[in-house]
């Protein structure tokens, strides 16, 4: 009786965990793809396309951890969700934490707004982008600069 409960509990946990993991399964394509069994990472080269949770990342090359949904990408990256469109040289996405760090000539463009900087930290949960280093903002014909700027993409306002 006790073993039946343990078995059923274990089976239930397994079913729940595999259901959760499959719900966030990424779509991954590239010209060359292989799975590195030593690191547990997909290694992608050439026209990389990654889609997770209605977010799209494109790059020249990338590594993806399918278990944690972490992405390391470089080579002219884009990160897009709806009308939010980031570009830069490289990105590190903390998939399970819904957080991305984009470096190198970062740009955000959306309707009537353009923000450029050395780097940006974007949190999909709070919907706040924190731009750092040589920040340049162009909004509705007005241009200004700053060292750091926080921008809420849902409220379309600077914090």
TrEMBL record:
Keyword Cytoplasm on entry: no
Keyword line: Signal
Membrane-crossing residue ranges in chain numbering: none
Signal peptide range: 1-23
Keyword Mitochondrion included in the entry's annotation: no
GO cellular component: cell outer membrane; transporter complex
InterPro entries: LptD
This protein's name: Lipopolysaccharide export system protein LptA
Species of origin: Sporomusa malonica
